[in-house]
Structures are given as structure tokens and as C-alpha cells.
Prior knowledge:
Blueprint: E1 3-10, H1 16-21, H2 26-31, E2 35-42, H3 44-50, H4 56-75, E3 82-86, H5 96-101, E4 107-112, H6 136-143, E5 146-149, H7 152-158, E6 165-167, E7 189-194, H8 200-203, H9 207-217, E8 221-226, E9 232-233, E10 238-239, H10 248-253, E11 257-260, H11 266-269, H12 274-281, E12 286-288, H13 294-297, E13 305-306, H14 310-322, H15 324-341, H16 344-357
Parallel strand pairs: 1-2, 1-3, 3-4, 4-5, 5-6, 7-8, 7-11, 11-12, 12-13
Antiparallel strand pairs: 9-10
Helix pairs in contact: 9-14, 12-15
Amino acid sequence: MPKVLFLTLHRPDRSPSQRFRFEQYLNFFKQNGYDYHFSYLLNEKDDSFFYSKGQFLKKFFIVLKSFSKRLKELRSKKKYDIIFIQRECFMLGSSYFEKQFSKTGAKLIFDFDDSIWLQNVSDVNKTFAWLKNPEKTAKIISYSDLIFAGNEYLKHYALQFNSNVVVIPTTIDTDEYKKIPQNKLDHKVTIGWSGSITTIQHFEYALSVLKKIKAKYGSNIDIKVIGDANYTNKELEIKGLAWNKQTELAELSSFDIGIMPLPDDEWAKGKCGLKGLQYMALEIPTIMSPVGVNTEIIQDGKNGYLASSEGEWFEKLSLLIESKELRERIGKAGRKTVEEHYSVNANKHKYLDLFNTI
Length: 358
């Protein structure tokens, strides 16, 4: 029975990148003869310290503990056929561990879904930016036997350092992702955004148009933000909600329209459209900025909308707000797109074939 070691920073179900890149496939791998071990560095307690402000001494001990764990894995006599690294296997700038794992005799697969060769440090950890080394991504790619890139933009980058690169899109488990019916007591249309503390600035690219929408429709619309419990906007009457795995589907299902605004920059071009795909899988009509892979996912006016200028955002939001029939039609077409191209079911055999032939 082939053995796979998955190396990540975060525990299962914690990181969207892990959840929607490989965790959804673990049972399928097992059903097809693979034995695996999942090794992560940050447990729930460490996670809360590591991504909070201050706590410098505790963060130092977390790094030491993480270093020790990876060192033990390297020295372990356990033999693996495949070692799968999602983004990085250690939180600092060194690619030492990836290089050493590449010498163990196992085939090394590297998976990434963002422009992680660019510096992008969260506000709470800017003090430690000097400890990060985005350039290590190129080294990890060069050490690997196979690269899973989340889109063509990322593939183009990886091909500079390794010729064995395939595109594996970020996928949704459509057996799990099904819209939960809502019992609304009013006729408000909810415009929703889902993300994290580190991406809340992307939501704010839509603020100017949302203010105009609020001025036009008043109490007939509601604006919801999931992923940053500290986020507030009094003018738009927004109080952010924390992300919670147990309530995720119910909260997302409360959206009548899902938005994914992005800047047109190098970091955003590496994004894999996860927010939009989540909305679409739940039959939520989706408007995205035409950046990167979003232009491949969305056929404007058919399965969603693309909007770049403030005028386009205003026009397309207005169309969806004013027509329930249009929302339903676009939402169903979006769900079909996910099922056919961006679902676990549509990609699992390709994923398995790559594991079998590496």
C-alpha cells in the first residue's frame, strides 16, 4: 500500500487552501489504496497565538517546537512513497526541510494556489516580515518531482524552475456544498462577501459602489461580511462575522448575491477564485473582478458577472437586486459550472492518476 506524508502548517479544516486543494480528496485516496499521514505544525491553541498581535515569546516557542517536529520527521525511519507539501512545510524563510525531504527517496509533490513568491504578510505579523523569504518558493519548486499549480498564471511561474507542472484547480465538494433553504421574514436582498482577516482589504474595494447601492435601495438590501469578526462599517450597517466551519454553509446560503472584488495586481492574479466558486456551488449569483482565473470561471451574463469599473459593479448589482428570476437563473448556471469543471467529482480521477504515475 503506497504511503503519503502530507506536510502543512495548519490542522485539518483550518486553512481554506488546504481544505479546497487536497483535504477533500483524502477519503478518495484511501478508498483507492493509499495510506496517508497528515502532519501539521499549528494546533488550535498555537494558531490563536501565532496569528494574533504581540505574543512574541510564545511565537518564538511555537517556531522552536515546529522546527523540532520537522526534524524528528526527517530522522524518522518511516518510509513514504510520496511527500506532499502544501505551500510550505515550515513557517520561516528557509527551504531547508523541503530540500532534505527531497533526498529521502520519496517523490515530492508541491502544491500552491497563490502568488506566494511575492511578499504578503498580514498586519499582525509585519514585525516578522524579515523572517519570511518568498523567494524560497522557487527553490521548493526546483526540489520537487511534480508541481500542482492552482491556475495557468501560477503554472507559468513554476515552469521557470521545473518542467513537470500541472494545473489542478481549487475545487468544491458539491456533495457537501448544497444550498440550505432560508426562511426569510423580509424581502431584503443580501449581498455577501466571505474571506478572512488577511483579505478583508479586498472587500473594501467594493465599498464605494456598495454605498451607492445602499443609497439607491436603502433598507431593501443587507450587506454581510464573513471572516473578520472585528470588521464594522456603520454607514453600511455591517458587523462582521467570524468564520466557523459548523455554520459556514448556513451563513453562505443566506447570501442572495456573492461578490469577489479584487485589485488587478500580481498577487491577485495568482488567486484561484475560491470565494466565487463557493458562492456558485450554492447557486448564489456571483460578481467577480475580471482578474486572473476569474475570467476563465465566469462567462459574463451566463453563469455570473464580471465587473471592473464602479459603473459595471453598480449596473450588475442592480440587475440582480431587482430580479429574483435572474438571480435564480444565474445561480443555477453557476452551480452547473462548478459541477462540471471545479468540483471534486470532476477532478478526483485526474488527481489520483497523477499520484499513481509520479
